[in-house]
Amino acid sequence: MNQEQGFKSLAPGYLFYTKSRVIWSQAYTEYGIGTVWNGRSCSLIKYMPIIESSGLSDIGLVREDNQDSIHLPDGSHPPEMGLLYAVADGMGGYTHGAVASALAIQKLAETLYNGNGRPNPKSLRRGVESANLSIYKTAERLGAGRMGTTLTAAYIFDDAMHLVHVGDSRAYLIRDRQATCLTADHTTVGDLVRTRLITADKVRTHSQRSILTKSVGIGMFVKPDISQHQLLKEDYLILCSDGVWSVIQDEEFAQSVMESKGVDQVSKNLMKLALDRKTDDNVSVVTIHIRELSPAPQKMQKRHIVNLFRNRRKIM
Predict the structure, then answer these.
(1) Is 43 exposed, middle or buried (0-12, 13-18, 19+ CB in 10 A)?
(2) Structure confidence by residue, pLDDT tens digits, 192-239
(3) Burial of 2 by CB count in 10 Å (0-12 exposed, 13-18 middle, 19+ buried)?
(4) CA-CA distance, 32 to 80, in Å (whole number)?
(5) Fold of 7-315
(6) Dihedral (C-alpha) 243, 246, 251, 253: value to the nearest 10 degrees?
(7) Fewer CB within 10 Å of terminal CB in the chain, N or C?
(8) The model's pTM
(9) Distances (CA, A) of 113 to 60, 80, 123, 228
(10) Taking CA 242 as the corner, what is the angle to CA 225 and CA 10, rounded to the nearest 5 degrees?
């Protein structure tokens, strides 16, 4: 992994962004074989996913620095351990929000990749708790006051996506030309929608849209939303910060997928659309395409998994 000016890596794959605008890209194909984690057998793997992914993060038109972080698999962990994709939108002031968002993804990934067997709600919750405590203690050590971040992460293992979510970044599933938001906004306005005091179409223009009711790192404890979703061939998953979805309607995510050729173009089109509509925040998108989800041959199920993915990421 090459580093450019204005780009700092806390650990392989976990990035935060400074005021500089950075361009970085990587493309590779990787095969992973085996069903052993930390020297121990993991759960039976029944499917061979073929996944393409792309990620973009931009400082935007208004902010002085980029406090978002994104994560895509970068080859530093065997694919059979699962594939982690994430978006985190930091808060807490200049530079500290960027540290919080990067740290959240780093600690979540460390917890999941150090686990054993299939992902489950307990391991996902433990990963968020580790991220929360780490950010909280870092803020105390830096004398930074309160530091926090949103965190929306998709952990793909076998034929399922395990989704963990805190804050107001979002995850969308695009299936059969329809976009479905899989996450609930942890905001004052989100609470108003859930109690039916306002309708969902008022969220994007509401004056209190960005007031978070839950985030990672602000307090000693946080309870994430955790869900599991079965994946199908040709599914698209889009993770994005509120700088994207606040100016793009749900149905436009599906439209972008239908009009684009490949994950790179989906991410680019969504980012361009958000910037063209004068979003007032950092802009981050991760696009995931489930190209194939084939049953593993019987003779391989007890011994092998072949997980092929192409990953392209650009941070501008």
Answers:
(1) middle
(2) 888 888 888 878 888 777 789 999 999 989 999 999 999 999 999 999
(3) exposed
(4) 6
(5) Phosphatase 2c; domain 1 (3.60.40)
(6) 0
(7) N
(8) 0.82
(9) 32, 10, 10, 18
(10) 75
Pairing of strands 83-91, 148-149: antiparallel
Which residue type occupies 2? N
Residues in the chain: 316
CB under 8 A, 24+ apart: contacts of 59-64: 59/17, 59/19, 59/21, 59/282, 60/243, 60/275, 60/279, 60/280, 60/281, 60/282, 60/283, 61/275, 61/278, 61/279, 61/280, 62/279, 62/280, 62/281, 63/281, 63/282, 64/19, 64/94
Task: Round the CA-based radius of gyration of the chain to a whole number and report it.
Answer: 18
Distance in Å from the first CA to the final CA of the chain: 16
Closest CA to 259 of 276, 273, 246, 277: 273
Residue found by looking up tokens 């040709």 in the block: 234
Structure tokens, 216: 């990672």
Q: Residue ranges of the domains in the chain?
A: 7-315
pLDDT given at position 3? 28
List all residues 6 or more positions away from 75 whose beta carbon is below 8 Å from its beta carbon: 28, 30
Give the closest residue to 66 by CA, choosing from 4, 17, 8: 17
| Angle at CA of residue 301, ends 297 and 302, nearest 5° | 145
